[in-house]
Specification:
By secondary structure, the chain is α/β, with parallel strands linked by helices. Helix content is 36%, strand content 26%. The protein has an 8-stranded mixed beta sheet, with helices on one face. Helix 5 runs antiparallel to helix 10. The longest helix has 18 residues.
Length: 324
Amino acid sequence: MNIGILGAGRIAATMAETINGMDDSVRLLAIGARDAERAAAFASRWNCSRSYGSYEELASDPDVDLIYIATPHSHHFEHAKLCVGHGKAVLVEKSFTANAKQAAELLRFAEEKGVLVTEAIWTRYMPSRRMINDLIGSGVIGEVTSLQANLGYPILHKERMVKPELAGGALLDLGVYPINFALMCFGDRISRVEAGCTKLETGVDAQDSITLYFEDGKAAFLYASMLALSDREGVINGTDGYIEVQNINNPEEIRVFNKNRECIRTVPVPEQVTGYEYEVLACRDALADGRLECPEMPHAETIRVMELMDGIRADFGVKFPFED
């Protein structure tokens, strides 16, 4: 599978590193940036044979099978639609789009074109997802009642985080991970959502507190911040103990504790290149099978998460300038 990367920033470099560290069933073929010089520099650094000074040129390359969208949230819809219009399968970095309306339109367009599109929310594709769910299902911590999860980095210096015109804010970049963690553990039958935030002067959310209440009585207490470093921990609570997940953003280790708060089991996660490889392999397999979505992150789930975040932003009073 020949891969092109659209956008030449930090996350694009991580994807390039990932592909270069994988087996030869996948290959980094092309990079598209906003100018030719930047694209050429990226190509030279990451062993990429083709570079383009426009996204249109990348999307038009007949040898590219899959394009990874690595631009800010505000541009995911536009750039993914460009690629789909050229018949290219697309792996769109999270958050999938700026809102659910864009997500639904993009997925309808991809279905019309018969093109694979999927969201690059890497935790959905990792082996740790199954490992955590297996532990929950085993009953080792008894009846599961709640969880808490957080993700925080001091990243105010990043332009895309603070500008509303770039769909900035903590929710779409960081809060999406605790939300997905909760949905992967507890499912999608949410009965009530409570959310609040502190804002920057630009109007975007800087620190978020989100509580999801589920129909079966479970609750998820979630926190995200672009102001401070957090421990990134996820804890799943049960009547007989609890499960700790070190780093919900890229799980490093899973620990099980009993009623006495004693660690009774440590579950290491598999070694990996960066963690991005699992979503790439899912795309490779989906293309080979002729599927239009990846089972690890179905289109319905992408829409569900975007709708949930739309509602949370409404509670925050955060609206992007390009939204109706």
